[in-house]
Amino acid sequence: MSNGVLAFAETADSGLKKSAWEVVGAGARLAEELGSSFSAVIVGEDTTDRAAELGRCGVPRIYTVEDPALARYTSDGYSAALAAAVERAEAEIILLPATAMGKDLGPALAARISAGIITDAVEVSAPDGGLVAVRPVYAGKTRITVAPAAAPVVVSLRPNVFEPAAEGEGEAEVIALAPGFGDGAIRTVVKDVLAPEVRKVDLTEADIIVSGGRGMKGPEHFHLVEELAEALGGVVGASRAVVDAGWRPHSEQVGQTGKTVSPKLYVALGISGAIQHLAGMSSSRCIVAVNKDPEAPIFQVADYGIVGDVFDVVPALIAAVKEKVSS
Ligand SMILES: Cc1cc2nc3c(=O)[nH]c(=O)nc-3n(C[C@H](O)[C@H](O)[C@H](O)COP(=O)(O)OP(=O)(O)OC[C@H]3O[C@@H](n4cnc5c(N)ncnc54)[C@H](O)[C@@H]3O)c2cc1C
């Protein structure tokens, strides 16, 4: 087997996900460093259009697997589809996003193809000709550098960390695979998806997140968090304390038992910065915290900190952002 790199391009109903461009961008750079072949795989529906779109970024070869059985994600179906692409591409390094789907798919694929797995990588490179990945451990307190002991290896990449592939004028060779999903190959069938709410951008892929904590004092004050998020063009997140209190849905929870996010801007309003919260957001590029306690741990990771009452500071921030946007 050659040391080919294969990137899984995740799709949603709306098309290629942002993480698809990131995984493909990281895969192309890694393959170049390794001097190895590079390809991508798209699974599900409308794969022809999506492959044409992805091909414009210069990925040389795209495998597609389209089958009615893959219309909705299942571990069985997608891991079987990816396994077929891994075999065809002779891939030794399989990259996928550490999204909700990727967190399920990665281990299922690794088990299916007897591969090792490195999860939630924030860096991948090949300094000495072999893959090396960096991943956070101990709830984000520190980072470790890991290298696979053997090939193949599945690596999931934290969303919003890797530079996405840029769309250009490229055209990929598209190879349709039809591995076949006979009786019993797919043991679970998704019959219906009950979307909890309409959210414009997935929290894990958002560039800007404004999160509220217990310092917001009650659900009736979260309109301030929402207004600031809207003014900045971002989405709302929350600490576990407010989710447990029923002020906000669990889908908004950031942290160890919620979502891991890496936005360009993370604004924490009335959040203390407990280690379990930091585990989910400390890799954000720029962190702004508002807290009335100058000793709050959130200030240890914040790039900008405002010591003050959220009920004074947030309305002023909203007004300032709106004025800036309109001028
Ligand atoms: C196993 C486990 C998993 C966990 N997972 C998560 C997780 O995924 N995500 C998560 O968030 N937590 C998680 N937690 C809980 C975590 O330990 C904290 O309890 C939680 O993050 C606290 O939320 P908070 O910061 O909103 O509330 P608090 O800790 O109560 O902090 C409120 C903050 O608001 C400030 N404040 C109060 N009033 C104002 C005001 N008027 N203006 C400005 N600031 C004000 C206070 O100074 C304080 O710092 C987990 C805990 C455990 C044990």
How does this structure look, described?
- With about 325 residues, the chain is α/β, with parallel strands linked by helices.
- The chain has helices at about 20-35, 45-55, 75-90, 100-110, 220-230, 240-245, 275-280, 300, 310-325, and strands spanning about 5-10, 10, 15, 40-45, 60-65, 90-95, 115-120, 125, 130-135, 140-145, 155, 175, 210, 235-240, 265-270, 285-290, 305.
- The strands form four sheets. Strands 7-11-6-1-4-5-12 form a seven-stranded parallel beta sheet, with helices on both faces. A five-stranded parallel beta sheet has the order 14-13-15-16-17. It has a three-stranded antiparallel beta sheet with strand order 8-9-10.
- β9 and β10 (about 140-145) form a beta hairpin.
- The structure holds flavin-adenine dinucleotide.
Labels describing this entry:
17 strands, seven-stranded parallel sheet, Rossmann fold, 25% strand, five-stranded parallel sheet, single chain, alpha/beta, globular, binds flavin-adenine dinucleotide, 327 residues, 2 domains, 9 helices
Task: Please estimate the helix content.
Answer: 25-40%
What general form does the structure show?
Answer: globular
Order of helices and strands: EEEHEHEHEHEEEEEEEHEHEHEHEH
User: What share of residues are in beta strands?
Assistant: 25-35%
The count of β-strands is 17
Sheet bearing the most strands, described?
7 strands, parallel
**What are the bound molecules?**
flavin-adenine dinucleotide
Strand order of the largest sheet: 7-11-6-1-4-5-12
Mean pLDDT, all residues: 93
- CA-atom Rg in angstroms: 21 Å
Judged by helices, strands and strand pairing, the structural class is: alpha/beta
Helix count from the secondary structure assignment = 9
N- to C-terminal distance: 58 Å
Relevant CATH superfamily of the largest domain: HUPs
CATH topology of the largest domain: Rossmann fold
Name the poorly predicted regions: none
Oligomer: single chain
CATH first level of the largest domain: which class?
Answer: Alpha Beta
Count of domain modules: 2
CATH architecture level-2 label of the largest domain: 3-Layer(aba) Sandwich
